[in-house]
Amino acid sequence: MTADMLSQDLSLLIPELLLAGGAMALLMLGVFMKGEGANKLVQWLAVVLLAGAGLASLFLVTGEGQAFDGGFIFDGLARFSKVAIGVVAAIALLLAMPYLKAEKLGKIEYSVLMTLAVTGMFMMVSANDLISMYMGIELQSLSLYVLAAFNRDSLRASEAGLKYFVLGALSSGLLLYGSSLVYGFAGATGFNEIAIAVQSGPSVGLTFGLVFVICGLAFKVSAAPFHMWTPDVYEGAPTPVTAFFATAPKMAAIVLLARVLIEPFGGMVEQWRDVIWIVAVLSMGIGAFGALTQTNIKRLMAYSSISNMGYALVAIASASQTGLWALLVYMILYMIGVIGSFGAILSMRTREGMVEQISDLAGIAQRNPGLGWSITALMFSIGGLPFMVGFFGKFFVVFAAVQEGMLILAVLAVLFSVVGAAYYLRVVKTVWFDEGEVEFVPAAVSVYWVTRLAGLATVLLLPVIGWLVFRAYSVGLATL
Amino acid sequence: MAPIIVFGPLLASAFAGLFGNYIGHRAAQIVTTATVVLSAILSWIVFFDVTMGGNTYTIQVLQWMSVGDFDVSWAIKIDNLSAVMLVVVNTVSSLVHIYSWGYMSHDPHRARFFSYLSLFTFAMLALVTADNFLQLFFGWEGVGLASYLLIGFWYKKKSANDAAIKAFVTNRVGDFGFALGIMAIFSVFGSVNFETVFSAISNNELVTVAGSTLAVPAQDAALSFFGMSFNAIELIAFLLFIGAMGKSAQFFLHVWLPDAMEGPTPVSALIHAATMVTAGVFLVCRSFEIYELAPAASAVVTVIGAITALFAATVGLAQNDIKRVVAYSTCSQLGYMFFAAGLGLYSAAMFHLFTHAFFKALLFLGCGAVIHGLHDEQDMRKMGGLYKMMPMTWVLMLIGTLALTGVGLPPFTLFGMELGGFGFAGFYSKDMIIEEAFMMGQEGLFFGLPAFWIGVVAALLTSFYSWRLIFMTFHGSFRGKQDDYDHAHDSNWVMTGPLVLLAIGAVFAGAFFKDSFVGKDAFNFWGDALPAGPYAEGNYPEYADGYPGTSEYADVAHATDDHAAPTSDAASDDHATDTHADAGHGEAVADAGHGDEEHHGGHHPPAWVLWAPFIVTWTGFFAAIWFYLVKEGMGARIAARGGPLHSFLSNKWYFDEIYHFIFVRGAKGLGDLFWKIGDVRIIDGWGPNGVAGTTLAFAKRMAKAQSGYLYHYAFVMLIGVVGLLLWAQVSAGGQ
Fold this sequence. Notes:
The complex is a heterodimer.
Chain A: H1 3-12, H2 14-32, H3 36-59, E1 65-67, E2 72-74, H4 76-102, H5 108-126, H6 130-148, H7 155-186, H8 191-199, H9 204-220, H10 229-236, H11 239-245, H12 248-262, H13 269-292, H14 297-317, H15 321-346, E3 349-350, E4 353-354, H16 364-367, H17 369-383, H18 389-403, H19 407-433, H20 445-460, H21 462-479
Antiparallel strand pairs in A: 1-2, 3-4
Helix pairs in contact in A: 2-3, 2-5, 3-4, 3-5, 4-5, 4-11, 4-12, 4-15, 5-6, 5-12, 6-7, 7-8, 7-9, 7-10, 9-12, 9-13, 10-11, 10-14, 11-15, 12-14, 12-15, 13-14, 13-19, 14-15, 14-18, 14-19, 15-17, 15-18, 15-20, 15-21, 17-19, 17-20, 18-19, 18-21
Chain B: H1 2-53, E1 57-67, E2 70-78, H2 80-103, H3 110-128, H4 133-151, H5 158-189, H6 194-202, E3 206-208, E4 215-217, E5 222-225, E6 228-231, H7 232-247, H8 256-259, H9 265-274, H10 279-286, H11 288-292, H12 295-317, H13 322-342, H14 346-373, H15 391-405, E7 408-409, E8 412-414, E9 417-419, E10 422-423, H16 425-442, H17 448-474, H18 482-487, H19 493-517, H20 522-526, H21 534-539, H22 552-559, H23 568-575, H24 582-598, H25 607-630, H26 634-641, H27 644-650, H28 655-686, H29 688-705, H30 710-733
Antiparallel strand pairs in B: 1-2, 3-4, 5-6, 7-10, 8-9
């Protein structure tokens, strides 16, 4: 390997290098600087680093291609995902800062762990080899396990972290087992080679391996039936951690899943489509029905994310270019809705501390109209009510499914979204029409703005989404 | 000018209705009344402009809808017919608005009342100025809505609510027919525009009926309905008449009108006497080109009209509610108009509509004054002798009654002098209808002579019940509480003023407008809008020369007299054999020719026909004197005896009972079935409630599965893996 090639490879890795180096530097900084100021500095530097890494993938990485003998890939999909992940992680950290301070959790490890997790996610979306895939996943997961239990004095947070860790280990096992099967039957770990092997004809071994890999990744996106951890962890983990869980890692995992299914296993669409189909339907269904009886808003968001991942899987199941478009649009809109919603949840702080019950929101629109409107817009958007942007996300997904002739799946998706609308509307109804007198203390600046901007975005992004849908529509038509 | 006439009341209504709470009652009253008065003044200007100057025009306001071939515009059509209606509607409406200042002065919801009144006025104006059937239908429904709102104005009264619903539902039956008629028109002519349709009919243009590819002459087009094939024009005429029956309270669909008296009295005067109920007559006259060529449907119109005239008059004999007597009287007079229209006497029907508007509004408002003066007492059995306490009202009611009963002196020659030939408004219009019915009967028109005899008998009954009303109310001894009598009083000038104006109309409208509506000026007066009628054509053929319209009618009237003549070839083959014999009109030609020679002698009915209404009117008058003044209390004794005839009449021929038995009970049963079984059990049970219940149960069960135990979660995951592996194998194996 010549230095020339190395530098060429490394130029594709600039964002990851930035993140990894940055994480180390921040750790050192935190360890050697003393005082409250250190934490604050580290947090702000981490925010800059996360957003910077995202922007670096947009601006600094000029070329596209594979590196390290095909173990790493940088393409449009990766670029798009990295920007999204970097920005949303930065926002999640912004949301976390006032919370950590108030809950006396202000330790530099939080920022460092988030940076490391994002490094893992960047690796995941660029993985082009079973090994690099696993490396990315584990880097991400291990950081997240710790983050889930970050409030180690809280019993529930520790329990959440432990549950997540054990089940995560189980899923890693499934993933590894699947990878080994794939390696065994394809004779290689690189996605390029696997693709060639798949071309020559699918085998039972490959199918088994693939299903295991799907199971392992489904756990990461909390798709049913590997979703059981989600409500407990979402509820138990500190709220900003939950906000982070519900956004960036989901994006990374779903993009990875899409890449695995469409690139190396693209030739086995017939084999995996039914599996994804059933996982999607189960996720949408369990997400929709499970949320109906929830009273804790974080648990509600957990079911909401299960259900939303179901829709994302519908987009993957369509396995077309339109489907990929739909997936990316859907995920972006989903992350906007979720990060805004968690901003709203983080605003639910009374003088006694955080509250998490939906009933605590009763009548908040009267006392705090800005918050009320934001929650309304966000809930409508996530629920896919016209004419918030979320509606077009769902519309797009269903469109992709219909285009591939998966009518039953499309119909089920719409039906489940009707059930889902019930609980989103229940929140809105509580916000506007119920009587309540819970007074919230004024939200921190970052929380305030994230909530309001995300709420606004559900409406203001309409033209952009309209353009995207139109683009994808014409692309979709071209491939017909 | 025309747009102000039509849309002014709408704006005023919206203003009063939407802002009534903010601007107060007085402002709402002022705005609506001023607007309608302005409309009325402009209407008279338009009226003279059109009927004297012949200045007819159509303003296209906007395109309403355009779907495929279906193209409808919103228009204001000003022609002779709509000008007459504009005058009637706006004059009565403005007087009623003013009258209501006094009548409704104690009502807390006056702003709403005035808003409804103006809304009604707008809808009625939209109806009469329509240039197509769809806009006419809009106005038709609009007045129905306003009527519903106003009947139920005192919505806390159950009887008022019931009456409002009854009126609305009964009108739905008619409107259904009307809507079918409009659809039939569209399917035959491909247009609902008056001009297109009427010219296609009278020129016998080739039309292509929807669903067929063959073009046939309009008069031979056939439509199938319930599997039977009908002549399209007959069917359309019949369906339109169903609509007219509902709105104009004709026999079978009349049941709502008496109950509608639950509304405030000004409403009864405006809507249920002068304007809305005459919409049916207007419709038939507007579509006279259709009815000319639909002898069978015209016969139906005649028969139903005649029956209504008689039936309502008989029922009127035995009613005790002062407003109901007048209501049945209205019903009966509408019957006159219809049988006139059915016999082809469109101008006579419009003439009666015109005069009737004045004297019937006068009578209703007079009743209102009585009711107001007696603190909402409507039962004539509790009145009597009021002429001393309310002399003004008494005089005005007398004028109204004289006009309604058609008091007047027919022309006769005494000692070489031509005398008589004058009277109150009803004398001209009603006697014109009766006499011309006789003439049409002479010509052999179906049901002409029976209609004449029914007209005469109904006139007798009209006279009797009208005088009965006067005597029971104003004469004899007071039968109510003495306290009420002592406080009875004439109304203030706000209420009396409109009455005086209407009384002037009731006295002079007939004499003044006779020549214009049916006499020698009729050719000029109606222009293209209506045929001048056999009376004018028979007696004044020389005036037809001056007929200003472009006019097929003018030429034709001169050449062959008959307005059906443009289609004479068609008439000669298939219509000649019909009962509505065109041959009959042919005789009229001969008659007319004859008339020329003898100078005005030819179209005159025999003297006994002229004197018959005169005689029966006075007979009724004296009979009423005998029963209610000379033998005071005799009527009450007859009622108390409860003989079968009296029960039959006082129960309105048992129509309500029969309808209740046949329709209401059945509909209620059906409704109950759909509600309790269909909706509650099946739709709700299996639908919303069932689904929601199942969903919730499912959600609860799922929440239970979320146990919190780690090993449960791991177990589910592994089951999932196994399941998915199996699924992948099964589905792959299936391929």
